[in-house]
From TrEMBL:
Superkingdom in the source lineage: Bacteria
Coiled-coil ranges per UniProt: none
SUPFAM superfamilies listed in its UniProt record: Dimeric alpha+beta barrel (SSF54909)
UniProt lineage: Bacteria, Bacillati, Actinomycetota, Actinomycetes, Kitasatosporales
InterPro entries found in the cross-reference section: Dimeric_a/b-barrel, EthD_dom
Protein name in UniProt: Ethyl tert-butyl ether degradation protein EthD
EthD domain span: 10-88
Organism: Streptomyces alfalfae
Length: 103
């Protein structure tokens, strides 16, 4: 499995971010080709001090190739373009293979 992690720093208008994200962006996410599972949170906390992030999103894909195909698809490009409508604080996007732990 391959995971896409999107971290959102504090936006200029947190209420607009929440409203737009839930009503407009997440419905687009639901139709993203190749997406196996997804989750998000507006309750991002740090173990010490204040979190540098306002929200987080995780999306799971079969492998790195499936993620790359999803991002390159017309729908993936539409999702990426939509981020500017709510993420006024910027965005950090990373991805990585997920390994199961033993024990």
């Amino acid at each position: 499995m391959h995971r896409l992690l999107v971290l959102y720093p504090e936006p200029t208008d947190p209420d607009h971010f929440r409203d737009y994200y839930v009503a407009r962006h997440l419905p687009l996410v639901m139709d993203w080709p190749g997406l196996l599972a997804w989750r998000y949170s507006f309750d991002v906390a740090a173990t010490e001090g204040e979190s540098p992030y306002f929200a987080a999103f995780e999306g799971d894909f079969a492998d790195a190739a499936a993620l790359a195909a999803a991002q390159a698809s017309p729908h993936g490009r539409r999702l990426a373009a939509d981020v500017a409508h709510y993420a006024t604080g910027g965005v950090v996007v990373i991805h990585y293979p997920v390994r199961d732990g033993a024990g």
